[in-house]
TrEMBL record:
Keywords: Oxidoreductase. The keyword Cell membrane does not apply. SUPFAM superfamilies: FMN-binding split barrel. It comes from Microbacterium arabinogalactanolyticum. The lineage of its organism: Bacteria, Bacillati, Actinomycetota, Actinomycetes, Micrococcales. InterPro entries: F420H2_bilvrd_red/Heme_oxyg, Pyridox_Oxase_N, Split_barrel_FMN-bd. Residues 10-125 form the Pyridoxamine 5'-phosphate oxidase N-terminal domain. This is Pyridoxamine 5'-phosphate oxidase. Pfam families: PNPOx_N. The keyword Oxidoreductase applies.
Length: 141
């Protein structure tokens, strides 16, 4: 299932197919904090997840937007790094709808929840299903 890290559409499709991953954000003490989350992506590669408004990740993203995300399925692992933000207004409705399309019945747009959008800046695709393993990296910045 090898695909190039520079191919935003292929990366987005992989994320959508997986539907989950681990996000690492930076806590108030400058220590990393990780969480397993439901995850989707728009066609242009914007990552989207929801969180409780009171969650650590929502507070972390609001104060320190640098995040890393890992998504894996079978022999392929995709690492992504970027800048996250709590979406508001029209963006919240738009990316929240994309999240709800992937996860029908989600509570992403309900009161007490936030929708987090991640602008990806760097991607690494690692496929051990090939011999030798295939690794591609791309700077999306």
């Amino acid at each position: 299932m090898t695909f190039d890290a520079a191919d935003r559409s292929a990366v987005a499709q992989f994320v959508r197919n997986c539907g989950a991953g681990v996000i690492a954000s930076i806590g108030p003490d400058a220590e990393p904090q990780a969480a397993f989350v439901g995850l989707t992506a728009t066609d242009d590669g914007l990552l989207v997840l929801d969180a409780l408004e009171s969650s650590r990740k929502a507070a972390n993203v609001a104060a320190r937007p640098g995040v890393a995300v890992v998504v894996t399925e079978g022999d392929v692992t995709v690492q992504l790094e970027g800048r996250a933000r709590v979406s508001v207004d029209e963006e919240r409705r738009r990316v929240g709808a994309a999240y709800d399309e992937r996860f029908p019945g989600s509570r992403a747009l309900d009161d007490g929840f936030v929708v987090i959008a991640i602008e990806v800046r760097w991607v690494r695709v690692y496929d051990v299903g090939t011999n030798p393993a295939c690794v591609t990296e791309s700077d999306w910045a």
